């Protein structure tokens, strides 16, 4: 069942190229246009919506955070991302012009189910992005866009996260095609980029041992900070969550730009900081994050830098560099998160912990 891997988590990390490829599969017509037949929400309604609210918990919520960057850019309507349990018990502004997107691997997370029910009571259409066929959220929503990650057994989510980003990107491209905010050839260009991701994820996996060596050398750390900017920010949050869940190490993710507004006070000699660096082909984003690496390094941080192949600007300030293949900005979460998953998995393994069944956690939380 574990496909020759020591744990489900190891297997599921390696399943990721396929999870992305399978989620893309069969979603274009013969002309290459995006076809999301399963959407079953009237096109007239999808043309009319003026806001999207993503509701989810845990890793699924971080997939929503990533999606916000792409969907707003492509569809030009506001996307809010909210933890399902917070959404449910405040008084959110939702109506028939709101599309609520519920992201859930299991489709059984009670907090997310309650948010779905609340949204539908307010007259919103709910689109579920779920991995488990026939699950409660799938059944109770107006439409379902399935992620095809296959069964995810390890409690902490890995391949479902990549499949969720892929599916929400398809949704964004579909809406931009429908609403005419992107030309069809632009949509096709993004689909081509997405189709290249499985190969790029394989390239990251091929360097797994380097990441595991780094993790083993850090098995005694007590706190790790993660920094990212733009789509790298939710990647930093997810990297920190993986480390908490799997290795029980205090970890926090920050928006890199926020560092100077507070968190930099945490930096002391030897503090490990993992930085997700944007592609140098986005110089404004890139330069700012490189200077953040410089700032934490100058204050004694031990810097572990996730940077694109050929990015030499980071070299003077990096204690360790983990290379990822060149990828368009919006697609980078799908490659940049992989070393962070491997890092957390190996650190937990080095500490002798059960990575598939971390203490106190359940695969799907069916109570509020
Ligand atoms: C938590 C799991 O309980 O629920 C996480 O430990 C998961 O891994 C989160 O991301 C949300 O679960 P789901 O099934 O709604 O995606």
From TrEMBL:
It comes from the Bacteria. The active site is at residue 363. Residues 41-181, 214-358 form the SIS domain. The keyword Repeat applies. Keywords: Aminotransferase, Cytoplasm, Glutamine amidotransferase, Repeat, Transferase. Its main location: cytoplasm. It is found in: Cytoplasm. It catalyses: D-fructose 6-phosphate + L-glutamine = D-glucosamine 6-phosphate + L-glutamate. One of its GO terms (molecular function) is glutamine-fructose-6-phosphate transaminase (isomerizing) activity. The keyword Repeat applies. Its EC number is 2.6.1.16. Catalyzes the first step in hexosamine metabolism, converting fructose-6P into glucosamine-6P using glutamine as a nitrogen source. Homodimer. This is Glutamine--fructose-6-phosphate aminotransferase [isomerizing]. It comes from Georgenia faecalis. The gene is glmS. The chain holds residues 251 to 618 of 618 of the full protein.
């Amino acid at each position: 069942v574990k496909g020759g891997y020591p744990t489900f988590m190891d297997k599921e990390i390696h399943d990721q190229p396929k999870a992305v490829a399978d989620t893309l599969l069969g979603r274009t017509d013969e002309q290459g246009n995006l076809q999301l037949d399963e959407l079953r929400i009237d096109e007239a309604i999808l043309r009319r919506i003026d806001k999207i609210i993503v509701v989810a918990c845990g890793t699924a919520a971080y997939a929503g955070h990533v999606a916000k960057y792409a969907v707003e850019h492509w569809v030009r309507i506001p996307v809010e991302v909210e933890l399902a349990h917070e959404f449910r018990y405040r008084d959110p502004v939702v109506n028939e012009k709101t599309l609520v997107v519920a992201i859930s691997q299991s489709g059984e997370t009670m907090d997310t189910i309650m948010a779905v029910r609340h949204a539908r009571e307010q007259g919103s259409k709910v689109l579920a992005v779920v991995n488990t066929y026939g699950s409660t959220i799938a059944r109770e929503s107006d439409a379902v866009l399935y992620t095809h990650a296959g069964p995810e057994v390890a409690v902490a989510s890995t391949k479902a996260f990549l499949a969720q980003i892929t599916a929400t990107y398809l949704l964004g491209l579909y809406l931009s095609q429908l609403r005419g905010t992107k030309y069809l050839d632009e949509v096709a260009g993004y689909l081509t980029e997405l189709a290249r991701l499985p190969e790029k994820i394989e390239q990251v996996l091929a360097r797994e041992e380097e990441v595991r060596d780094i993790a083993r050398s850090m098995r005694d750390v007590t706190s790790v900070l993660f920094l990212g900017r733009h789509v790298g920010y939710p990647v930093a949050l997810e990297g920190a969550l993986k480390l908490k869940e799997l290795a029980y190490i205090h970890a926090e993710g920050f928006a890199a730009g926020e560092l100077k507004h507070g968190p930099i006070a945490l930096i002391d000699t030897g503090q490990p900081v993992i930085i997700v660096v944007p592609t140098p082909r986005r110089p404004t984003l890139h330069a700012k994050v490189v200077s953040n690496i410089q700032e934490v390094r100058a204050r004694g941080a031990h810097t572990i830098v996730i940077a694109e192949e050929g990015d030499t600007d980071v070299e003077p300030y990096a204690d360790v560099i983990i290379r990822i293949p060149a990828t368009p900005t919006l697609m980078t979460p799908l490659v940049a998160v992989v070393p962070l998953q491997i890092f957390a998995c190996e650190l937990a393994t080095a500490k002798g912990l059960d990575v598939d069944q971390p203490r106190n956690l359940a695969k799907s939380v069916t109570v509020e």
